[in-house]
Amino acid sequence: MEFLETLYNEVIGFLGISQALEILRSGDYSTFTTYDGIVSLIYPIIPLLLILELILGFIYKKPQAKVYKVNFLIYIFNRFVGRFIAIAMVALCIGLFQQYAPFQTTMTWYWFIYGYIVWELGHFVYHYLGHKVRLFWCLHSTHHAPEDMNLSVTHAHFFLEAPYADTIRTTVCILLGVQPEMLFLIMFIDGTYGAFIHIGENILKNGRLGFLNKIILTPSHHRVHHAKNPLYMDTNFCNLLNIWDKVFKTYQEEQHHIQIEYGITREMDSGNFLDVYFGEIVALAKDVWNAPGIGNKFRYLLMPPGWNHTGNHKTAKVARSAYLESAKAN
What we know:
- It is a single chain.
- The chain has helices at about 1-15, 20-25, 35-40, 45-60, 65-80, 85-95, 110-130, 135-145, 160-175, 180-195, 220-225, 245, 275-290, 295-300, 315-330.
- It is mainly alpha-helical.
- The protein has a domain at about 45-275.
- The protein is globular.
């Protein structure tokens, strides 16, 4: 009986409807007009879209079963292993760094815009490092391993990635004066939209969202980010506002004539949970073990994926530069 109750709570938690159910049980439907009520109605949107996406996959005969299976296993594993670590890191960073902020924002629309731009800076920094530092890539690669795009990819993360990401994003925001209440609001909005941009073609064939494609980061931009095509590698690091990608010249539009190839460049079995979750860590450990000299061993930890002590580098920067040179020549 206890197992069934636990299972029920997990399902309700995954669907994001626990808060809405509590309001319905209370009978006070006016609560839905409050902030908490609105949040309770937003939470279930992504899980319900994920279920719709899965159903449409079977209807369209594009079920992407391998991706859903592995991402489901990752979700279950992370629920047991890293449930509260990220929350603890956010609280720790707020306590440590808020006293050093030169000023504090207030809950006004103009400070909210400021706060969101600062949050996107923190997100860019964490995300960029996740692609350019191999040790951090070991945490992030799990998210890029799926060879199709759908909403289940939202749950494909190594359990230590959220603490690492939130440590950087929270520290940047708190040091630049974003008050905790505003930070949590931004995190909620960003988390919801950050899940939505993983929506697959079974629901949204064209991910460009019309004129919004020129203003914000859309599913089309994020599909480019998840691609292993040389032109697309290591681009579009932002989440909603693509301002920092444009500032740091990592912005890339989806090209109609280039078919997106999802996944990572390392040869792997994307249907194998262990390879998806731990494969990059194993590959890094082998390179460090075989590297000559302590200096090269440390370089393998800190240099980008594809760096090689022999000078025969196969980094994303090398691959993209070679592609651009070839395209220019032709």
